[in-house]
Amino acid sequence: MNVLLSVAFVVCWSSGFIGAKLGAGSADAVTVLMWRFLPLALVLGALAVVRARAAWRGLTARDLLRQCVIGALSQSGYLLTVYYAIQLGVSSGTTALIDGTQPLVAGALAGPLLRQYVSGGQWLGLCLGVTGVLVVTSADAAAVEGVAPWAYAVPFLGMLSLVAATFLESRSRRAVAPSVAMTIHCGTSAVVFTVLAAVAGAAVPPAETSFWLAVGWLVLLATFGGYGLYWLVLRRSGVLRVNTLMFLMAPVTAVWGAVMFGEPFGPQTAAGLAVSLLAVAVVRSGAAGRADGGNPGDVPGRHADNDTPARPRAPRGQPR
């Protein structure tokens, strides 16, 4: 059962990158994101009023503001860069791989920012992970014509936005219920993307069926499917397994994108993905020898829907 849940989780999470590719062909990134989050925020807000009022008690204005900032970083900033990169022509697999370095970067930064010990083996894993990203990115750039070199830096900005949200959440003094956090984050994203779409004159959705197919794909598979399975796998198998599964998103998305959209997947791409998976093994082996209380390898969990970072296990519990 755990294996089946893990497989379903990887597929649903990876579907977010594929849905972004579907949406890129029918509308601007802000249009897709606006109509992805606006109905979702309304539904979650209604559920919070009807069923989850107790979870909001005791929260101060500062707590709510912090969650809004975390949501703006982990959803708005992160997703906008992912969608924009794919709209610029960066392949979904390359975007997923760049995003997949977030656990490695967060684990490395746990030392200077959270004063946790980071072993030499884990630094080696970080270097291997970056090498794998560079190999895949160079292969993608060589195979895809018309993509500006700077476009590959866009998903890196999103990854850094996700890392910033992770560490901001780690310093929260008050634990916020997951349902509350998701409602605030989705509400924040709905406001951000609606304003951006209105300013850009892109708030009106296109009438094409492909647009609504992409939105439905993202809401059902990436948000509800991925997010729900994230929590289920987390409860059954723990944060370490969830974080390890995150690194499978890049190869799954790369294969999926190659089959569905004809994106490049040659020997160089396969080699880069193999190096990245080796980086995971190195980091995990370095973390496995550590005590449970201070494992920087556990820093970078993320909620499903490709957008929300989880709180590091050390020094506090996971997730927000």
Automatic annotation (TrEMBL):
Compositional bias of kind Basic and acidic residues: 300-310
Membrane-topology annotation of the record: Multi-pass membrane protein
Keyword Membrane: yes
Localization, UniProt: Membrane
The organism's taxonomic lineage, starting at the top: Bacteria, Bacillati, Actinomycetota, Actinomycetes, Kitasatosporales
InterPro entries attached to this UniProt entry: AA-Vitamin_Transporters, EamA_dom, EmrE-like
Protein name: Membrane protein
Residues of the EamA domain: 3-137, 156-283
Keywords: Membrane, Transmembrane, Transmembrane helix
